[in-house]
Amino acid sequence: MSTAREQPIFSTRAHVFQIDPATKRNWIPAGKHALTVSYFYDATRNVYRIISLGGAKAIINSTVTPNMTFTKTSQKFGQWADSRANTVYGLGFASEQHLTQFAEKFQEVKEAARLAREKSQDGGELTSPALGLTAHQVPPSPLVSANGPGDEKLFRSQSADAPGPAERERLKKMLSEGSVGEVQWEAEFFALQDSNNKLAGALREANAAAAQWRQQLEAQRAEAERLRQRVAELEAQAAAEPPAVSEKEGPSQSLEQLEALVQTKDQEIQTLRSQTSGSREAADTEREETQQKVQDLETRNAELEHQLRATERSLEEARVERERARAEVGRAAQLLDVRLFELSELREGLARLAEGAP
């Protein structure tokens, strides 16, 4: 791109994406950070282009034509298709306001490109009504930043006075310091990301442990309820009276048979009394053991409930810490974007100053 014939007319910062050429469905990010995306006007050819550089590589080099359409797909994301490049570009902005400004400028440039094409076909003077400029009236335009009012930066033209050696050294020093600051901000940003990932992992582990403890608590409660029912059944069984044993004999039996029958019944009564006594003792023993188990289970339930409350407090603290870390990451990312944007502007200014030097 020749800076002598092309001038920036609008600039903003956004995360740049390109459609996956294999699937035509998924987005491929151009980098980890937001990039500067600019509209340029070529006064010689009366052409408008959208350009975004990633280092020395052109991430976006799209010539705006009248048949292009910029589509807002969400509050902070928009896209357009470039048939010449055989791809679809996507931009993710920091706010809806930035997206709206870029979309309005796209429509404005598109209309200017349409009018320029019509004028060119008619053989008249190549004008740009949408931007209020002609092919012979394009001055070194100010770079309007989409970050809001008060952030306008004016590029110096080639006709400006050439800086002296001391000024060039000062600019080189500022550029070097900006590069060091960029590395420091990136290191801090990745450290905060790592901390956030660790907190997220700890939170997931704590959630899993809490779910497991809840399952154990429910199982213990069910077991305690079953044992209580068993105790109630044993108490009801112990309270029941043994059935009375009686035998009616006909009046025709002899006295000896009656005496033998009485003795037999007496023995049966003694046997039944012995069995009943043993059953009651066994029932009492089982009931005591069951009551002891119930008490142990209740104690265990209390411990589990205490652990559950402690875990819930830990989860809440982890959530608070994670939100704090996330806020720090957001602040660091915003500061890093500002630093990178300032560094990019400083580099462009240094390049223009170097070109203007004799």
From TrEMBL:
Q: For the region Disordered, what residue ranges are annotated?
A: 115-168, 270-306
Name of the protein: Homer protein homolog 3
Q: Which GO terms describe its molecular function?
A: G protein-coupled glutamate receptor binding; identical protein binding; protein domain specific binding
* Family membership: Belongs to the Homer family.
One Gene Ontology term of the biological-process aspect is: negative regulation of calcineurin-NFAT signaling cascade
The source's superkingdom equals: Eukaryota
Q: Which SUPFAM superfamilies match?
A: PH domain-like (SSF50729)
Gene3D superfamilies recorded: 1.20.5.1700, Pleckstrin-homology domain (PH domain)/Phosphotyrosine-binding domain (PTB)
CDD domains the record matches: EVH1_Homer_Vesl
Signal peptide: which range, if any?
none
Q: Where is there biased composition of kind Basic and acidic residues?
A: 281-306
Task: Cite the entry's keywords alphabetically.
Answer: Coiled coil, Cytoplasm, Phosphoprotein, Synapse
**Gene Ontology CC: one annotated term:** postsynaptic density
InterPro entries cross-referenced by the UniProt entry: Homer, Homer_EVH1, PH-like_dom_sf, WH1/EVH1_dom
Composition bias of kind Polar residues appears in: 270-279
Q: Where in the cell is it found?
A: Cytoplasm; Postsynaptic density
Q: Which SMART domains match?
A: WH1
Domain WH1 as annotated: residue spans: 1-113
Q: Which gene encodes it?
A: HOMER3
